[in-house]
Structures are given as C-alpha cells and as structure tokens.
Amino acid sequence: MELNIALLRGDGIGPEIVDSAVRVLGKTAERYGHRISFTPYLIGGAAYNATGEPLPDETVNGCLASDSVLLGAVGGPEWDALPGDKRPEKALLGIRSALGLYTNLRPAKLYPALRSASPLKDSIVGDGFDLLIVRELTGGIYFGDRGYRDGKYGQEAYDTEAYSVTETERIGRAAFEAAMKRSKRLCSVDKANVLETSRLWRKTMHALSEEYPEVEYSDMFVDNAAMQLVRDPSQFDVIVTSNMFGDILSDEASQITGSIGMLASASLGSGTRGLYEPIHGSAPDIAGQDKANPIATILSAAMMLRYSFGLQEEADAIEAAVDRVLDAGYRTADITGDSSAAPLTCSEMTEKIIEAL
Ligand code: NAD
Fold it and tell me: What is the total count of domains within the chain?
C-alpha cells in the first residue's frame, strides 16, 4: 500500500514526538511492505513565525492533498500574547474544520504496567481498562445559536443545542463501526430524561442499532456515565456521545488513566482522511530536551493505520510493541511513578519500541 502522510510537527515537543512516530511508522511500513512518504507543513507558532499565520493556506492544501495527517502539538508562552485569531491554538479548530472532521475518537487505556499512575484504587481498576470515547465534534451546543437577551430577571445569556437525525446517524455509524473493530459493545450516553435533543438522539441510535445486530448496544444517562467511569471503568468498551458530553467525559476518562503522555486521539470525517494527534499539548517546560514521552503520538500513528488505512495488523503490531516495552519496565520521566530506575529519553523510548516491533 502507498501512504502519503502530511506531518504537522508544530511547537514545543511537537517536532520530537512526531519524528519518533515517523520512525515507528517507517519501521512498520518496511516490515509489512508498504511505501510511505511524509510531507511536513507548518502549523501553530512555528507557522506564525515563518508566515504571520498560524494556519497557512499551503498547510491546509497540503493536508487536503494527503491521505492522512499526523499532528504533534501547538502553542507556547512565546505566542500567548498574540490576538485570538493569530494564536497557535486557533490553527487546531481551523484544520479540523477545513478537513471536515466531525468524529473524535479518544481511547483511554490503563496499562496494567502503569496501574499505579491511576488515581483510582487497585480494587476498582483491577487489571486495567481499555475504552474508546466517540465524541461528535461539529454540532450541538458548541455550535448552536447563542446570545444575550432580556429575560425574566433582566439580562440573560443563552446557548442552544440542536442535533439532526443526519448528524446523529453519522456519528452513530462511526461508533458502531469502531465497536465492530473492538469488542463489539457500544454505550450511547445522553440526557434523554430531560433533553429533547437527547430523546431524538436515543431514538436515532436505537434505529441504527438494528443495522448492527452483532454489537451489544446500551444507553446511559450522562450523570450516571460520569459516575460509572470512576466506579467501574472496565464495564465500557465504546461510548458514543454528543459534543459537550464527550468533551467532559473524555477528559474524565483521560484523567483516570493518570498518564497524559500515553493518550492518543483521532478526528475523522466522511472519507478515510483523518487527523491524528496526542491529547497532550506542546509541553514547553520540557521542549528540546529529549525528555518527552513519544508514546501518545506513536499510538496516534497506530490509530491512523487502523482507521484511515484499514491496516489492523500493522496497528496491532505497534500497540503490542508499546505493551512489551512497558511490560519490560522501560519508562520515560513522566511515567516512572515510584520506580528508581533512570528514565529513558524520548529517542531511547522510540528505539525500544522499534526494537520491539
Ligand atoms: P501540556 O499538555 O503541554 O503539558 C502539561 C504537563 O504535562 C506539562 O508538565 C508537560 O511537561 C507534561 N506533558 C505533556 N505531554 C507530555 C509528554 N508527551 N511527555 C512528558 N510530559 C508531558 O499542557 P499545558 O502546559 O497546559 O499547555 C502547554 C501549551 O500547549 C499551551 O500553549 C497550550 O495552549 C498548548 N496545548 C496544545 C494542545 C494541542 O496542540 N492539541 C493541547 C493542549 C494544550
């Protein structure tokens, strides 16, 4: 297979972690007989410094011409005082919207080897957990009508939530398809006891579930889901939910793994092209010191192989290599926990993962 990947290294630790993922992808392509080419484009503060824009047209066009996009992270104190539309973070919304990405996939996995990093008790996390949150990314209350008006008690502000059957079906389908690639369990999270949008959401999801008889489908109210995530996270496999509920629940799910440097994400649209990135930021405090944990970006690259290119075996191989390296006790500084062993650098960790591949 021939893969053309756009690379958005960005700022801070972005270049280091993207280059680690490139090396792992290169090794995977070599092992499985694929041809892979990488084209770098500027984004964020680096793009602003070079062109005066955090998301130059050349970057958008390059990403649109690629098969898929791998992003490091953007931002840093150097650009904090810029006006809103020039800030590096603005480029993230811009690139997601230019690529028409409406599905956000956020896996939250607690590796047995990193159990002590979780703030949850051992009796709750058991042997770890592995769940995937599928969040609707371009609809709902974050994009609805909003404003100020005179209300019963004087000035008031309002935001509105609207979800069409079409929007719900397309995110639902993405979630059912993701569940089919995992352990075939899907829980849809809503607030159908109160919200009209949730009632239509639920009805639409139920209708869709008829098309996926192999998937064990359930519904849960969002307040209960927030509790269940900390009470018994391993009951979940795939969770699908709206933009705002997904925003909140995916951060909760990340937090209970305890290791921000390990968590990958994917944003997808209607085609196969996606944007793959770690959930963490540009970590300016450790940038340029070869200390960053590259695993979140390497796992994002594995997600790219699975979701954009259908290369399940190759994605599994990268994830298994990460498992083996962690099981063998290798750690970067952010995940050493109580261990007294010297932490690996970003490049040493990358090398270990490549050896394990
Ligand atoms: P951050 O995620 O960059 O860092 C938080 C803490 O986690 C820091 O101590 C950092 O050293 C550590 N950390 C993060 N990733 C790590 C890794 N891979 N390995 C080891 N340690 C890691 O969040 P922040 O400090 O709030 O933000 C820093 C900058 O990043 C800001 O400019 C912010 O706007 C930007 N940001 C960008 C994105 C993105 O590009 N998607 C996301 C969040 C924040």
Answer: 2
Residue 11 CB–ligand 1 contact under 6 Å: no
- Are 204 and 233 in a shared domain? yes
In the reported structure, the alpha carbon of residue 239 is separated from the centroid of ligand 1 by a whole-number distance in angstroms of 25
Q: Answer whether 117 contacts ligand 1 (Cβ < 6 A).
A: no
Q: Is 159 a catalytic residue?
A: no
The pLDDT assigned to 28 comes to: 98
Residues in the chain: 357
Active site residue 223: yes
Mean pLDDT across 245-251: 93
Protein residue whose Cα sits closest to atom 11 of ligand 1: 283
- CA 313/CA 336 separation, integer angstroms: 29
Q: Residue 92: CB within 6 Å of ligand 1? A: yes
pLDDT tens track for 97-144: 899 999 999 999 998 888 888 899 999 998 889 999 999 998 999 889
pTM comes to 0.91
Q: What is the span of the domain harbouring residue 164?
A: 119-257
From 144, 205, 139, select the one nearest 175 (Cα to Cα). 205
Which contacts qualify for 311-315: CB closer than 8 Å, 24 or more apart?
Answer: 311/1, 311/32, 311/34, 312/181, 313/32, 314/28, 314/32, 314/34
Which residue, of 215, 238, 257, is where some domain finishes? 257
* CB of residue 284 inside a 6 A radius of ligand 1: yes
User: What is residue 84's predicted lDDT score, i.e. its pLDDT?
Assistant: 85
**Annotation marks residue 181 as catalytic:** no
Domain identity same for 4 and 75: yes
Examine the fold and report which residue of 257, 287, 320 is the final residue of a domain before the chain moves on: 257
